[in-house]
Amino acid sequence: MVADSVVRSVRSGSVRRHPDVARSSGGLIDYSLTPLGADPMPIPTIEPLTDFSREPSRRAMRAALDAVRTQLGRDYPAILDHRPQSAPAWLASINPAKKTEVIGRCARSSVEQAEHAIASAKKAFDPWRETTTEQRAELLLKTAAILRRRRFELASWQVLECGKQWREADADLAEGIDFCEFYAHEMQRLALPRRRNVPGEENSYFYEPRGVCVVIAPWNFPLAILCGMTVAALVTGNTVIMKPAEQSSVVAAKLMDVFIEAGFPAGVVSYLPGVGEEIGPRLVEHPDVALIAFTGSLNVGLLINRQAALTPRGQWHVKRVIAEMGGKNAIIIDDDADLDEAIDGVVESAFGYQGQKCSACSRVLIPENRYDAFVERLVEATRSRSIGPAEDPAFYLGAVIDEEAYRRLLGVIERGKKEARTAYAGDVGGLSAEGYFIAPHVFADVDPASFMAQEEFFGPILAAIRYRDLSHALEIANGVPYALTGGLYSRSPAHIARVKREFRVGNLYINRKITGALVDRQPFGGFKLSGIGSLRRSIMAVEASRRTRLDLPLRILPMKRIRDLLVIALLLTGLVHAQAPEVAKAHDGVVYSIAFAPDGKTLASGGFDNLVKIWEWPSLKELKKLPGHTSNVYCVAYNNDGTILASSSQDKTIRLWNPADGKFLRELKGHTDVVDSVAFSPDGKVLASGSADKSVRLWNPADGKELKTLGSHTKGVYMVSFSSDGKLLASAGADNLVKVFDVASQKELKQLKGHTDAVTGVAWLPGNNKSLVTISHDRSVRVWDVDAGKETKQLGEVDAKTKAIAPTEDDPYGIAFTKDGKLATSGYAGFLKIWDLSSGKAAMTKKLKTYGAYCVTFSPDGKFLVTGHDKNAILITPSGK
Fold first, then answer.
1. What does residue 582 show for φ and ψ, rounded to 5 degrees?
2. CATH 2.130.10.10 placement within the chain
3. What number of H helices and E strands is found in the chain?
């Protein structure tokens, strides 16, 4: 690795869609590194979280907690070679919410037992490395199945030992399952040798394991991180010694039980609890240890790195260290941010699991002109979060992990009172006598260079910092020794693009909380003093656990040349067909909307260069350029006879044009935020618009006057659509709702509920005034009976595990019908789909070479899909299989 790895993630549904924000690939394979003839292996779906709003789930969790309580106080010795070892001493693990309650006693393992563990792992290494990839992957899948079966039980141990709320403990289990299944599948793909052959030579490139791996895990994700680091090393053929945190060693003992039940051979994985200062140095410095995977504090991580750099006599390798060491993470609030979304995201990021996450927000950067209002609302939102034992799901915050953390955080709070203004200081009442409870604190007017703004606290303490402009915000955000996670709440594509370039963090999140990275989708890790090595939750964690080998002779070709040769070979063998035409540089910015004229002879496009353009079809010769908007164009639409073209923009206006001569007709003003969507009624007499200002409005296009503001959504409106007879209007909102209005009476008739994230598109079935289809950032496509107000079908494939319809591969943005009822959708990751409504399955799926199919429509004859692209282009793709 010669460059830092970064992840950029956007929650597009939070205010409005921001196409100029990158997303992870979701496991797409670079074919230049894939053997010819090898099929890419499907990436497992993300394990769904338990819905504790359902009584059966609550009942199961309560029963598991009751069962676990009957097992408290037991002893957990070290497990080496699958055998328990005698303990020289014991360490009590305490319930942080109840200081008098002992969860269990774990062995205080000795240096001699650490030597024994290393010897056992070394002895098991050669037989283990000779097992096949398929055998090792199968054991990971068995581990995942056991974790899923014992989900409530293992989550209950976390609630009691680590003070995790139900939802947090459940998410930890789900992530452990995801690690097992993802690494199992990725290892099978990586095990295929890469061949670079020329006549007379056979060259191959493959991986081999490193040796004995020591995993030193934290207490805040007691199963997920320990499991993830361990199975990444195991599936690559290494043997592992698990050294868990003292505060979570009972949970680690339960994970060891799972590995034994799954069938891992003796010596391949060991459980070695104890005090880090006592056995850690020997584990790190031992010449037979090849790999150390660590998650924890900066000081310990740097010490491990120094110790591992030594090469004692008899050590014939350089140790590989993977270390994730925390952060001082910031969220920037832009001056145009949606405060509702931003407040929720900041509070969840700062105070979820009492702020005890390396990804937690401990700094919020607020523009001067919104500072007081934001802090006031932040305080009110924080005050509304209840605090109490994690065992009771009614409470949002629980106790911090132990007495050391409790006393340290009290000291931080006292220092904060001297360095800054206390905007909010919560009160735990009598809870402090029961457990290690720290109430959330918000400090205002914090100096960016002060202790409060520079040091990681690992607790429910938030510093609110003023900034003058975006340059100042980025200077503050980057002005700390860490670079792990960061966030931005903004509606400005220009600001989003700049922050993506200049905010130097490993994981940058746009318009969403900065905690909760998902396996594969958001590979997790930082740089500067936040970490070294590899990104967790990604294939890099697997690759970091292995060495690469080349079988010579090897002739190296430039990577671009390799890709070119591969494409040529595939074309010659008929495995790949040449792509349809692409119009390069259709706009000097993202092409966000396209629409055909009713006669099918021209199409219009709207771009993020503030322009509307008209093109001849099918030659795609540019006919007219329509300037006038002062910001990004979000939507274009023709009226029924093609005599008026409407365009809507981030500049909060709608402009009407004569497409025949390109002349500007009139401007429609009234919206107070981005106008995301416009649509004409079938007779062309009414124009509807939806906006980020949360309103749906009706206009008279003849004179430009507003007719009516319809009932609003609670968040922005992404799309509006008229029924075939023009009597009904549907709107899709970021509040997860679809609303249906009667145009004549201008009254709201229905609310269609079911989506779990922003609804990004809505379209009526042609000739059918009772059914419509919606798309959403929850990655679902749904069909609705409007009269009944109910969902009738969800499109997609059935998930073999859940028996439910699986999410689509993509986050859908565009939706369109042909006149005869053929449905197409497009998405950010570049997937184009045509759906068979009768079967509910995709009749055609195409993946574009790159991301960003923001809109889609059919050519007049239905033979082509036409999409707007984030490469500033219009793409034309055959719509057949």
1. -125, 130
2. 582-878
3. 18, 52
Residue of 610, 628, 608 lying closest to 869 (CA atoms) = 608
Q: How many whole angstroms separate alpha carbon 63 and alpha carbon 47?
A: 22
| 324 labelled catalytic | yes
Tokens of 162: 């680590």
Separation of alpha carbons 423 and 364, rounded Å: 13
By CB atoms closer than 10 A (0-12, 13-18, 19+), residue 806 is middle
CATH architecture of 329-518: 3-Layer(aba) Sandwich (3.40)
Catalytic-role residue among 153, 168, 324, 341: 324
Query: Which residues contact residue 439 at a Cβ distance below 8 angstroms, ignoring those fewer than 6 apart?
Result: 387, 397, 425, 426, 427, 428, 460
Spatial distance between the Cα atoms of 456 and 220, rounded to a whole number of angstroms? 15
CATH of domain 71-325+539-551: 3.40.605.10
- In the chain, CATH 3.40.309.10 sits at 329-518
Phi, psi dihedral angles at 171 (to 5 degrees) = -65, -35
In this prediction, residues 488-506 reach a mean pLDDT of: 93
Rg (CA), the chain: 29
Residue 120's H or E segment, with its range, is: helix 111-129
| Closest to 739 in 3D by CA, of 769, 756, 759 | 759
Give the pLDDT confidence of 610-626 residue by residue, as tens digits: 999 999 998 888 999 99
Q: CB of 753 within 8 A of CB of 777?
A: no
> Is-above-0.85 flag for pTM?
no
Contacts of 593 (CB under 8 A, 6+ apart): 605, 606, 633, 634, 635, 636, 854, 855, 868
- Greater pLDDT, 189 or 325: 325
List the catalytic residue out of 180, 358, 361, 635: 358
Q: What is the mean pLDDT of the chain?
A: 86
| Closest C-alpha to 826, from 763, 736, 740 | 763
Instruction: State how beta strands 7-10 and 591-596 pair.
Output: unpaired
Least confident segment among 42-46, 204-208, 314-318, 400-404: 42-46
Could you tell me if 246 and 189 are in contact, meaning their C-beta atoms sit under 8 angstroms apart? no
In whole angstroms, give the CA distance from residue 857 to residue 781. 16
Strands (E), 777-872: 781-785, 790-795, 812-817, 823-827, 831-836, 841-847, 853-858, 864-869
Query: CA-CA distance, 580 to 228, in Å (whole number)?
Result: 42
pLDDT band at 573 (very low <50, low <70, confident <90, very high): very low
- What is the SS3 assignment for 505? coil
Q: Is the dihedral of CA 846, 849, 854, 857 positive or negative?
A: negative
pLDDT band of residue 827 (cuts 50, 70, 90) is confident
pLDDT of 567 > 50? The answer is no
Q: Give yes or no for a contact between 600 and 860, defined as CB atoms under 8 angstroms apart.
A: yes
| Owner of token pair 């700390």 | 480
Between CA 505 and CA 508 the distance in angstroms is: 6
Right CATH for 582-878 from 2.30.30.100, 2.60.120.620, 2.130.10.10, 3.40.50.970:
2.130.10.10
Burial level of 132, CB count in 10 A (0-12/13-18/19+)? exposed
CATH 3.40.605.10 maps onto the chain at: 71-325+539-551
Q: If DSSP states are collapsed to H, E and C, what string results for 287-346?
A: CCEEEEEEECCHHHHHHHHHHHCCCCCCCCCCCEEEEECCCCEEEEECCCCCHHHHHHHH
- Name the strands in the sheet holding 696-700, side by side, starting at the edge strand that comes first in the sequence: 675-680, 687-691, 696-700, 705-710
Q: pLDDT (tens digit, 9 = 90+) per residue, 232-288?
A: 999 999 999 999 999 999 999 999 999 999 999 999 999 999 999 999 999 999 999
Residues 122, 119: Cα–Cα separation, whole Å = 5
Instruction: Supply the DSSP string of 360-416, one letter for each residue.
Output: -EEEEEEEGGGHHHHHHHHHHHHHT--B--TTSTT-SB---S-HHHHHHHHHHHHHH
